[in-house]
Amino acid sequence: MRIQDILGGGQKLEEFLIEKGYKVETEYIDKEYPSALFIKLDKRRLLAIIELSNEESIKEIKNYFLIDKGLTHCCLILPQKLLFFRNFGERRYFLYSQRTSDSISKIDKLDKINDDFDLLFQTRDVSGDFYEKFRLKRDFLVRHIQNDFESPEKYLIAQKIFDRIFFIYFLCHKGIIKFSDGRAIGGKSLFKILLENGEFTKNLKNLFHLFNDVEGKSIKIGDNVILVPYLNGGLFRPDVLELDLDISLTNKDWNSILDFLNDYHWIIEDDITVAVHDEEKVLTPEILGHVYERGVVEWENIGYNNAADESTGKKSISERKKKGVYYTPEEITDYISRNTIFPYILEKFGGKYSSIEDILDIGDKSDLEELKNISLNLKILDPACGSGAFLINAAEILFYLNARINSKLGIKQRYYDIKLDIVTENIYGVDILQGSSEISKLRLWLWLIADYVDVVDIKALPNIEYNIRVGNSLVGWIDEKLAQIPLRSPLTDEIVGIFKGLRVYSNNQDTQKIEKARALLGDNEWTSNNPTHPLERYIEAYSLLYSIYRKSHGIKAENLKGIIETIRKAIYSSISPGYYEYVNDRLKKDHIRPIPYTEFYQLKPFHWRVDFGDIIKRGGFDIVIGNPPYVDAQTQSSKYEKTTIKALYLSYTNNCDYYVPFIELGAIKLCSKDGRFSYICPNNFLKLEYGKNIRKLLEGRVYEIDDFGANQVFYGSDITNYSLLIFSRGKCKILDYRYFKYKKDFEPILKSGRLNFSYPADEFEDNISYHSLYQDYKGFVLFNESPWIFLTKLEEKYLPNIITDNIPLTEVIGAKIHEGSSTGDDDFYLLEDCKNKKGLIEGFSKLKEERITIEKELCKKYVKRISEDFRIVDENMFLVFPYKKQGDGYISLSEKELKKYSIGYPYFKEFRGRLEKREDIKKKSNFEDTWFLFSAARSLEYYDKNKIIMKFTSKDKPKFAIDKEGYFHNASINNITIEASIDIPVEVLFNILVSDFTKYFIARFGTFLRGGYIRYEERFLKNLPIPKKIKTKRCTDMKTSYGYDSLFDKFIEKFLEEWISDNGNSELQ
After folding, report:
1. Given 3-state DSSP classes, what are the helix, strand and coil percentages for the chain, each rounded to the nearest 5?
2. Separation CA 664–CA 648 (nearest Å)
3. Mean pLDDT, range 528-543, rounded to an integer
4. Residues 1005 and 1061 occupy one common structural domain
5. Which of 154, 182, 595, 785 could form a disulfide bond with 692, CB atoms 3.0-4.6 angstroms apart?
6. Do the strands 218-221 and 224-227 form a parallel or antiparallel pair, or are they unpaired?
7. Are the CB atoms for 837 and 853 separated by under 8 Å?
8. What pLDDT is stored for residue 924 in this prediction?
9. Section 173-183 average pLDDT
């Protein structure tokens, strides 16, 4: 069948799908639409197909099947047009019509749906291109803010202005902004009117103001009267910095910005006909969300203040910015959210149902009502919410669940109202960057307005600034016992007057809450008759008033916000000093100097017990999810932050990345006893020493780990961390561990939505043992730091005996594995294509871009590569070496000694300024005397010895070579020596290291880098099991043979034989 034939109607489409391998589902019948055809896409997913005569009912029918009935896909057939929809993913529609019938890309997608139906919805990532262009325009605006503000303040204002402009484009698309005669006005037309009638900046400010003016209804610009609804919600509320904002952009400058924005189609998903011929220019709220995620990741990578300084021109563009940024794949956020929320809900039914679908399909009315009650009261948190990706996904899951419950119970509730309840009651987030929290709120508001139905009587947006907070999640009061806290009453005369005025604008229910809050604030005595601590009463009053404020507007909202802020400041001014003392007391116990209060305050403490007091008081959040910061401990900017976190978190060690204490925060401190927790985070903590404390804390809590191994989850990024999904709860007996095999084509698997962890999928190792880690199986402890090692059934059969019956490598050879030196500037120290010339070395200097000569005494032979056949690749390279021989090792030359080299010293002197800028050199106390030395000279005494060198990273097989020539090398190569007192030839050690078992051992228990590369690290290699026989066998017989595997008995031979049979010999992973 020709692809174009499917435009002939339902029967033709059915034939086409059957031809592609899909089957008709005959058991599913819909009473509302009995003519609908259902196609089975896989075990869980159905495609509903229905023919329509006109386009008027598209939205109604699409929502019926995808929301009310919970199907994942539907196809609506119109004359010569097919509309495919799904209820997940970044792109949720696919249109094929007579006008696009010959489109090569569309025909190709339809032709390949037998591989994966969701290929229809894949499209080029618009967010990346848009973000790069938008960033330039935003930075251009930043540089034209003339007020005397700091760079971060200018940056935030510019971001807010663009946020509002983006929002207005979507409002115009929804028909919410109109001309006074009722005609719709598009975003392009609206901004053109603002541009052509006076000063654009002034017109824009007036428009922003009207959105926040409860009395305002319209704005007259030139001859145009434009109706503008009151939206409130904080988006258009003027910031203090905006009151006298001076922007020097001309109308011509603004026109260039608008030309860029007008080049895109700003649409809500329902209206897919707008961009039929230009899909790569479509911007939906979902795609804009990914744009924002890229921005937030950039801020996390280079620092918000640095990004601001770059935008104003104070700093040059960083390398990390040039490399681009990434975001968490939607498939991951959805899987984490779904598999924490649903198991939590199911547990409330005591095992009565095995899935949410069971409750919806066979549950009685009381169980459906209980399901609705549980979902309405869920408290979901992302403690490092960034751009709000996890919050949006969790909100969507709750929305679809509640809509289906309503459908089952016959409850009529507008989708907007369902979403409003979710945004105000279920979703909470915190981020240290104000820009991130602003973006999270914007995304939630965009998610809301997508379901505006009545575009005449527009509801104002909810106030969610107390749901999405700014602060340092890791630093702040949760439930720690603090010293006596003096409280300052927030009840000033002004606040008392505001309380009185609030009664006028409130209904009976709100009035009762206001009266109670007033009473709680009125008495700060702590007596036997009033045993509740005044602080607890203040926090309760704060929570009561916020519960009213969320959905309040106008004067009432302004008055409530005034009281709430006053209460919050009063509590914070009391709590922060007490919490500061608590931190320093903990530091004192560890003999660490106290933190100055000014430095502590700059950490932006966030007091959970205050801002989310009612939730913490009831035991914590039901669901904690997210993607915590992957901040390297070595690059953290504040030593006081590191010190504080170390005092507060048992999991934190000196070399620990921030995601580790974030796990402790989410899983241990903020999650309720019966709550659920899940992060995507690096998998290093399972094995590395810095993870030992968090492993101990999590023991008995983790019930699932999905390990991506060497697969790159964050496609398009340059990060090298490899990820896993970790799920925990209060107590559990079984830990299911699943490992994803390395696949070069992992990105399309992930993006297609085929990554379904719910079943045993082909992508997972099918022979991984699902052990009860906390009962009969304790994991296999291989290293001193007790990593979590999960064994396959084959490994469980053989490996423990292999390890325990043999000797670790370093015990056998009596030596360590030595790391190479780091010069800090290889372009200076390395010479290429060298020749010996009468006591001199002549070679090409990359730095000077010419051949130079250096005294031979100042040079050492240098190796950079090892061949596939385990030999040193001599590329005639030499290392400029400012050290001298002393005994068995080397010591540094003094500058006085270096000056004796009449050719070499001038070369050093010429580039002294460059060498002094090396970070490790600047940190040295004797900086003036060491500027010419390597930044890190390591293991110099071992280079001259017979040794084995090895590449620090390798992919297909280990890269080892015997070196008897005394080559020097950098940190990308390590070396291994044998103590002189041990009679084992270096050839025997070499044979051990290039064996299949060594390759297996490191690949299995080491760590991975991007692209499947393995780190041959000392902490793993030193534990390589060596057979005891090696000390008694005549080693001279093995110098030229690969005898390592034969040294083991049939036991290990059988293991390797079975392993290679199961996994192949090319990649022992």
Report:
1. 45, 15, 40
2. 10
3. 77
4. yes
5. 785
6. antiparallel
7. yes
8. 72
9. 91
In a domain, 407, yes or no: no
Contacts of 532 (CB under 8 A, 6+ apart): 526
747 has pLDDT over 60 = no
| Antiparallel, parallel or unpaired: β 877-880 and 872-873 | unpaired
Q: Determine the angle formed by the axes of helices 508-522 and 534-549, rounding to 10 degrees.
A: 160
Residue 812 forms part of a structural domain = yes
b (16+ CB within 10 A) / e for 316-352: eebeebeebbbbbbbbbbbbbbbbbbbbbbbeebeee
Q: Indicate whether 759 pLDDT > 50.
A: no
For the beta carbon of residue 647, count every other beta carbon within 10 angstroms: 20
Sheet strands side by side (includes 73-78):
23-24, 37-40, 46-51, 73-78, 81-86, 93-97
Domain that holds residue 1002: 808-817+945-1069
Q: Are 134 and 282 contained in the same domain?
A: yes
Whether residue 820 contacts residue 972, with contact meaning beta carbons closer than 8 Å, is answered with: yes
Q: How high is the pLDDT of residue 1067?
A: 39
Structural contact between residues 126 and 281, judged by C-beta atoms closer than 8 angstroms: yes
**245 and 271 housed in the same domain:** yes
Alpha-carbon distances of 182 from 176, 220, 226, 328, 994, rounded to whole Å? 10, 15, 9, 42, 78
Assigned token pair, 591: 């003999």
Please tell me the distance from the alpha carbon of residue 1066 to that of residue 957, in angstroms, as a whole number: 8
In this prediction, residue 531 carries a pLDDT of: 53
Which residue matches tokens 């040059």? Answer: 316
Query: What is the C-alpha separation between 428 and 606, in angstroms, rounded?
Result: 14
| Boundary of a domain, candidates 937, 972, 1007 | 937
Amino acid, single-letter form, for residue 410: G
> What's the pLDDT tens digit per position in 970-985?
988 999 988 877 777 8
The residue among 821, 1033, 1051, 803 whose CA lies nearest residue 939 is: 821
Residue 886 class from Cβ within 10 Å (0-12 exposed, 13-18 middle, 19+ buried)?
exposed
23 pLDDT more than 90: yes
Question: Is pLDDT at 347 greater than 80 in this prediction?
Answer: yes
Longest CA span, the chain = 101
Q: How many whole angstroms separate alpha carbon 8 and alpha carbon 892?
A: 83
**C-beta of residue 926 within 8 angstroms of C-beta of residue 863:** no
Query: The tokens 């010569």 sit on which residue?
Result: 80
Cβ atoms within 10 Å, residue 928: 9
CA–CA separation, 505 vs 282, rounded Å?
A: 43
- Would you mind telling me the total number of residues written for the chain in this entry? 1069
Q: Do 152 and 308 meet the contact criterion of CB atoms below 8 Å apart?
A: yes
Structural tokens at position 374: 């549980």
Last residue of a domain, one of 88, 103, 121: 121
Look at 423 and 335; give whichever has higher pLDDT.
423
Looking at the structure, tell me whether residues 846 and 966 fall in a common domain: no
Which range, of 126-130, 211-215, 490-494, 733-737, averages the lowest pLDDT? 733-737
Number of domains in the chain: 5
Residue 818: strand pairing partners: 975
Distance between CA atoms of 483 and 990, rounded to whole angstroms?
62
Q: Who has greater pLDDT, 9 or 328?
A: 9
Distance from C-alpha of 1069 to C-alpha of 1065, rounded to nearest angstrom: 9
At 83, is the secondary structure helix, strand, or coil?
strand
Q: What is the C-alpha to C-alpha distance for residues 113 and 784, in angstroms, rounded to an integer?
A: 51
**Would you call 535 exposed, middle or buried from its count of C-beta atoms within 10 A (0-12, 13-18, 19+)?**
buried
Range with lowest mean pLDDT among 98-107, 259-268, 447-456? 447-456
Q: Residue 50 is which amino acid?
A: I
CA distance 684 to 681: 9
φ, ψ (nearest 5 deg) of residue 812: -70, -45
Judge whether 446 lies within some domain: no
Asked whether the whole model's pTM tops 0.85, one would answer no
Q: Do the Cβ atoms of 932 and 898 come closer than 8 Å?
A: yes
64 burial type by CB count under 10 A (0-12 exposed, 13-18 middle, 19+ buried): buried
Tokens for 248, please give them: 């020097």
